[in-house]
Specification:
This protein is α/β, with parallel strands linked by helices and about 375 residues long. The chain folds into two domains: about 80 residues, TusA-like domain (Translation Initiation Factor IF3), CATH 3.30.110; about 260 residues, TIM Barrel (Alpha-Beta Barrel). About 30% of the residues lie in helices and about 20% in strands. It contains ten helices and 14 strands. The strands form three sheets. An eight-stranded mixed beta sheet has the order 12-11-10-9-8-7-13-14. The protein is globular. Bound molecules: iron/sulfur cluster (SF4). The site of iron/sulfur cluster (SF4) has 13 residues, from loops.
């Protein structure tokens, strides 16, 4: 069985390592392919990916049923560029892990609903609005889910569109708005956007907190002092600099800490968000101690897995159907969830579609997912 690495035809074009290949021009799962898949999986470890290539269209449906019955995640089905009519199916040994609640030394690790397809559509419909304000960023973290960076096309969401979406959120009964990026503090009009949102709904601003100084800070600080309903969610992936800086750049940890202290001293509510590989779970107690020392509330600490999305080369390969929807919009249109802007997260709508249209698209996709019996729809905590 040949070993290939990496394949580059998954999601937004990022590499997906394939550990083993199976191909068969004639057999489907009912006529011999199933036993070959079982044998291949026996020789693979949890998390590795098997590519199954076939010209038989029924293999795709059979693999979807196999996924639901076996717990091995069918990550993607792509046309085989070299062989017209063939499809390549990417099957991961083991399911995508969004639920870490069995990790006993971190009981408050992450909030994940129990998978239960009986939950009603209404319970799963989004109540919060996420807006990607821009994709430029002062950092270029190696696992950035949206591949932001100093040279990224900013793709700014126009202020008028943000105003309209916030108005629609109010009319739709949404409870909260999140502004994320990229780095939202790079937008010169951020203070006015904060005023517009917080006049209407509570706001969480996702930031790396590294740019809170000079004229930018002079314009943000009065908004905090005025007691507007805003929380600043700051990424901090480790209690000491090594791991955070290894992914986000030398000195990023110290500057994020300085930014958190600036915010706390100004009276801001700060939420700490750590993206952790499973191997770093034992660092959570240290992160709690650090959060205690910074004055961050116990319920304002978020610990979540690294998603194999965007720029990440390793992490959890989480599919749209693994996560409960969180309505998300950028300058190009609507998304299922703010986990990433990869194509499979996109809702099939025009860029200027209304929130009502986006909610209908979410509802339709939920119905499809639940009836397919392969959906997990767990809560993945971006914020
Ligand atoms: S992870 Fe956040 S801070 Fe890092 S590049 Fe992406 S948007 Fe910027």
């Amino acid at each position: 069985m040949p070993v290939h690495s990496p394949a580059t035809n998954y999601g937004g074009g990022r590499a997906l390592p394939v550990h083993a290949d199976l191909e068969d021009a004639r057999a489907d799962l009912a006529s011999g392919l199933l036993i070959r898949i079982h044998l291949a999986l026996l020789n693979m470890t949890e998390g590795q990916i098997l590519r199954i290539s076939s010209p038989l269209t029924e293999v795709t449906d059979q693999l979807r049923s196999f996924e639901a019955a076996s717990g091995n995640a069918l990550l993607s089905v792509m046309p085989d560029a070299a062989r017209p009519g063939w499809s390549s199916h990417y099957l991961r040994k083991g399911g995508a892990r969004t639920d870490w609640s069995d990790v006993t030394d971190a009981p408050d690790l992450i909030s994940v609903a129990t998978p239960d397809t009986a939950r009603s559509i209404e319970q799963l419909m989004p109540t919060r609005l996420w807006l990607y304000t821009n994709y430029d960023c002062n950092l270029a973290c190696d696992y950035c889910c949206v591949v932001a960076g100093p040279r990224a096309d900013p793709r700014r969401l126009p202020a008028e569109r943000i105003h309209a979406l916030v108005d629609q959120a109010v009319a739709s009964g949404m409870s909260e708005v999140f502004l994320t990026g990229g780095e939202p503090t790079l937008r010169p009009d951020l203070p006015e956007l904060i005023e517009y949102v917080t006049d209407r709904l509570p706001l969480t601003l996702l930031t790396n907190a590294m740019l809170l100084r000079g004229p930018r800070w002079d314009r943000l600080r009065p908004l905090i002092a005025a007691g507007r309903p805003i929380a600043f969610q700051v990424s901090l992936d480790s209690a000491t600099p090594e791991r955070h800086d290894a992914h986000r750049g030398q000195g990023a940890h110290a500057r994020a800490l300085a930014g958190i202290r600036t915010l706390v001293e100004a009276g801001a509510r700060v939420r700490l968000a750590a993206s952790l590989p499973e191997a770093a779970l034992d660092e959570i107690p240290e992160l709690h101690l650090l959060a205690d020392s910074l004055g961050i509330r116990a319920d304002d600490r978020i610990f979540r897995p690294i998603a194999l999305r965007g720029a990440a080369s390793e992490g959890e390969p989480i599919r749209p159907e693994d996560v409960a929807p969180e309505l998300t919009c950028d300058a190009q249109g609507w998304f299922w969830h703010p986990l990433s802007n990869d194509p499979d997260m996109r809702l099939d709508l025009p860029p200027d579609a209304s929130m009502a249209a986006a909610l209908e698209a979410v509802r339709g996709r939920l119905v499809e997912m639940i009836s397919s019996h392969s959906a997990r729809l767990d809560r993945f905590v971006c914020g």
